Each structure stands twice: as C-alpha cells, then as structure tokens.
Amino acid sequence: MFEQTIQESAVTLGVGEGHHPQVFVPAGVWPAAGPTGIEYVLVSGVVAPGFEFDGFRLDDNRS
Predict the structure, then answer these.
(1) What are the residues whose beta carbons fall under 8 Å from the beta carbon of 59, sequence distance 6 or more?
(2) How far apart are CA 13 and CA 57, in angstroms?
(3) In angstroms, rounded to a whole number, what is the distance separating the alpha carbons of residues 11 and 43?
(4) Does residue 4 sit in helix, strand or coil?
(5) Which of 56, 14, 21, 26 is nearest to 42 (CA)?
(6) pTM summary value
(7) pLDDT tens figures, 1-21
(8) Is residue 20 helix, strand or coil?
(9) Distances (CA, A) of 33 to 17, 27, 58
C-alpha cells in the first residue's frame, strides 16, 4: 500500500500571517486544492524544468 501523508498549506497573499503565494510540490506527490470558504478559486500549476506526458495520469477522485 502507499504511504499517505497529508500536508496542508494556505496559499494566499497573507505572507506576514505565515501563508504563501505559492507552494512547491515535489515529484511523485499528488497535489490537491480546494477553497477555504464559499468563494471561487483559480488553481494553476507550473512544472519545471519541463513536462513529459509519458507516465502522466490525471486522477478523477472517484477511486
């Protein structure tokens, strides 16, 4: 079975309050995002140094 460790981060502009405007997610880790309230949110991702679709899988969260 897979090891499950959940780490939560608040991604906001409140840097002085211990929040961050971005979060680093290392290779091999599944990222997830959701709103903290009823507001709409925009989530994006940047990959570097490059992205290869070989082995890429998008989870549908139903399994």
Answers:
(1) 30
(2) 30
(3) 10
(4) coil
(5) 21
(6) 0.55
(7) 567 788 888 777 777 777 778
(8) strand
(9) 20, 17, 14
